[in-house]
Amino acid sequence: MDNIGDFVMSLPIIPALRQAFPVAEISMVVHPAVEELASRVCDRVFTYASPFVYKGNHREQGSLMSSIRKAQELNNGDYDLIVDLRSDPMTLIFAVISSAKFRIDISSERIGPTIRKIWAMVTGMPVISLHHPLTLIKDGWNGFLARDFEEMADKSRLLINDLQLAKQLGKNAKKTIMERYHINSFVQRWNDVLSAAVRKREQS
User: Fold this and answer.
1) Is the pLDDT of residue 179 over 80?
2) What angle do helix axes 115-122 and 163-181 make, rounded to 10 degrees?
3) Long-range contacts of range 159-168, CB-CB < 8 Å, 24 or more positions apart?
4) Which of 90, 128, 153, 194 has the most CB atoms lying inside 10 A of its own CB?
5) pLDDT digits (tens, 9 = 90+) for 76-88
6) Do the beta carbons of residue 46 and residue 74 sit within 8 Å?
7) Structural domains in the chain plus CATH codes
């Protein structure tokens, strides 16, 4: 998290995770500006300034390689679950490089499927997301949908306790993206649009 406001808005997820996993150690990756606040609610805090984030009119200092090195550094931890509270490309790199088996995406997809969710699904990672009518997730088939943080925590616990289910959901998630966004699908859709336009012109 990069801003104090964003961090405060994300706080409800902490007690939900504590309740679902009472003996778990919770780590958080935050901007240095909110390190002190995060240390009061989490067991471990790592600081990171994403090169994809702007402060005022200036992009944060950093590079893709430094971000990858930070993700590799975090990989030394034994993590079961990643909860993604952001929307920049680095969150996926952190999730893929880390040893975590699961990823919860905190997003309501207000404008439809987000690119981060698509990226996560195509890596074969089971995703838990908030409800939205345009979501790509079919509850219980290629991921889980939840109404609130508490339900997200409950469903993440279910995945951790049932690795076979998690593997199957991840497999179906990857299949969903490969079928929907494969280049052949785009070509076919364009062919359909062009063919319809030609037929309309011939009929006029």
Assistant:
1) yes
2) 120
3) 159/101, 159/102, 159/126, 159/128, 160/80, 160/81, 160/101, 160/102, 163/101, 166/101, 166/102, 166/126
4) 128
5) 667 778 777 765 6
6) yes
7) 4-203 (3.40.50)
